[in-house]
Amino acid sequence: MNRTGHHDNEARLDRFLADVQARAVRMAALALDDREAALDAVQDAMEKLIARYADRPDEEWRPLFWRILQNRIMDAHRRRSVRNRVVSLFGFGGGHDPDGHGPEPEDWVDTRTPEPDRALNDARFGAALEAALAALPLRQQQAFLLRVWEGLDTAETARALGISEGSVKTHVHRAVAALRKRLEAYA
Question: What's one GO MF term for it (predicted)?
Answer without folding.
Answer: DNA binding
